[in-house]
Amino acid sequence: MHIRFGESIRRLRREKGLTQEALAAQLNVSFQTISNWERDESWPDLSMLPVLAGFFGVTTDALLAVDKAANEQRIQELIEDFDNRRTEAPDILPKLKAALSENPLEYRLWVRCMQCLLRCARGLGGGLAVEKEVREIYGNIVAHCTDDNIRMWAKRLFVMHLHSLARPLEPGGALGRPETQAEAERILGEMPDMKTCREHLSIMVSLPGEGHVRAVQNALVELMWMIRHALFHHDGYGLAFPHEEATHPRAREIVYANELFLRTMDLYYPDGDYGAQSVLVIKANGYLAFYHALLGNHDEALAAMSLCMKRAAAYDALPRVTTHTSPLFKGLAFDKAGHSQNMAEAMGHLFEEHYPWPEGFKLDARFGEVMAGLEI
């Protein structure tokens, strides 16, 4: 797609019977600025586009001379590519930026560009490498975007980014950047609580029938996701990072938290159709395997390890869309789009490269058998 902004602004100016000097005076910019726009040598600031569109009485798409249908198809393809992680973050980032250069008011792309930058930062030594760019994108979304879903998404990303910058430089140490933690907490205070979120309100206002049932089911799905994350971030119990030795003394508590989560999942999903919780269930089995191994519970560790890989393979084999059969969620569709893909490969890589298995456990012949069968 090619945006013909210069051609468009020239045509609209002439239709109004204005010279470049007259238009410059109306917009309070220089004559040279108008000239540069019309020659496609520069573009106006984002904040100027709605002003120009309003002045000429056209949409921003018309102002930019965009083929809306073709452009929407291209945007959707890029969004699906990003959401399904079909392309690695460093490879898709230039595509997002190129699309944004042609669609500067497309906030669906801006928020994904923000998330992509933060993913890339993990390989660049942390969020400081992208701090300026992430902050600029966040400011742009908050100032100009009217879609609450995108605004809240951007706030969530930015709060987590600020918190990552503020974390102690070493376990138990002082905050690395306390001012960013204070900023994160201030933004957090502006965000809605659970009682005012869409999932909770939809239970109250949906009409009786299938729509209400689906609203309740979707709320339960989100609630189960939040329970898992709350358990995982419980410092005394669930915070499991096998590669971090600081978590190893809490092996018993971590085992307890993950077993509690898995028992809860089996109560809610007796048919094993975990849907949106599948990746969390798979990872919880992986954590159980490692921390049981630390405790010397080889039988339990091997059972959890095998179950982890079995569930990962089953998840990978699912078609894109499946329908739940477990009683509480019967009839609810689960779409894998936007969720992690290739979980067997991912867990195999973690087991092989990132889990520091105890030497005694690695000497168990059964461990070698399981590792030999990993899909990596």
The count of β-strands is 2
Return the domain count. Answer: 3
Mean pLDDT: 87
How far is it from the N-terminal to the C-terminal residue, by CA?
A: 39 Å
The percentage helix is 55-70%
Rg over CA atoms: 26 Å
Largest sheet at a glance? 2 strands, antiparallel
Element order: H for helix, E for strand: HHHHHHHHHHHHHHHHEEHHH
Which class best fits the helix and strand makeup?
mainly alpha
Q: How is the largest sheet built, in terms of strand order? A: 1-2
β-strand percent reads under 5%
Indicate the overall shape: elongated
Number of helices: 19
Low-confidence stretches: none
Description of the structure:
It is a single chain. By secondary structure, the chain is mainly α. It has three domains: 5-66, 434 Repressor (Amino-terminal Domain) (Orthogonal Bundle), CATH 1.10.260.40; 70-191; 195-376. The chain contains 19 helices and two strands. The chain has helices at 5-15, 20-27, 31-38, 48-56, 60-64, 68-83, 89-102, 107-121, 131-144, 148-166, 178-190, 198-205, 210-232, 251-268, 278-294, 298-317, 343-354, 359-362, 365-372, and strands spanning 321-323, 333-335. The protein has a two-stranded antiparallel sheet with strand order 1-2. Helix 14 (251-268) runs antiparallel to helix 15. The radius of gyration is 26 Å and the shape is elongated. It starts with a helix and ends with a helix. 26% of the residues are buried. The model has no long low-confidence stretch (mean pLDDT 87).
